[in-house]
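Please check the following.

. . .
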Amino acid sequence: PFMCSDYLIYPNDYMKEKMLKAYMIDKIYPGKILLEGYPRNSVFFDKKRKEELKSKFNISDKEIFVYMPTYRGVFYERKDQEQKDIVAEYLREIDESLTDNQILYAKLHPNNHKKINFKKFKHIKAFPKGYETYDILNMANCLITDYSSVFFDYANLKRPMLFYTYDIEKYENQLRGFYIDMKTELPGPLFYTSEEVLQAIKNIHEINEQYQDKYEQFYNRFCHLEDGHASKNVIEHVFFNKKG
């Protein structure tokens, strides 16, 4: 599909270079590259949509957290039960620590998600069905993730991010590795235990202040072309020859 396309869209030069090399088409791709931002990220600039959903879910007065971890393992070494047990215990601990004015939406890999009984939790809910992932993410005051690329997109919101990387050495050395230096380039702190994450949730505003400079650097590197009009910009370029 890449070689048959006339255009490829990327949000920054870094993503362009990494994606073209990852799919080994950087020397042979015949089409055009558009650095216009990702259309999917436009929702992060829609404040009205955010307030509409918060009102619909009756959470306008809540501090909202979202947990979106990546999937562990590879196709030939499945450890679904092990991952499910780790995630279930982690969610239980968070649920017990959250206050009544806080809520956490969890979006897990299907292999883990279907095994978690969310009805047992008081402050944790599964992602609402029938809505785009980024619609829900747009409501979040804070993202908790690990190695998922979702944090590149969430950075457009300039809101706090926490990285729960309890298995970072194994992930880097045995599983998939990283494109960036996780310990120096992220716009938020890394945590290796659930206790550290729970403490960070309680002090989220202080952590946000501590990482303002790091966040600004990250934003300027990866999000500077995003303006909420990516679809419009692409249409104008393709159909009306207006260069972005």
Observations:
- Residues 74-78 have pLDDT under 50 and may be disordered.
- The radius of gyration is 19 Å.
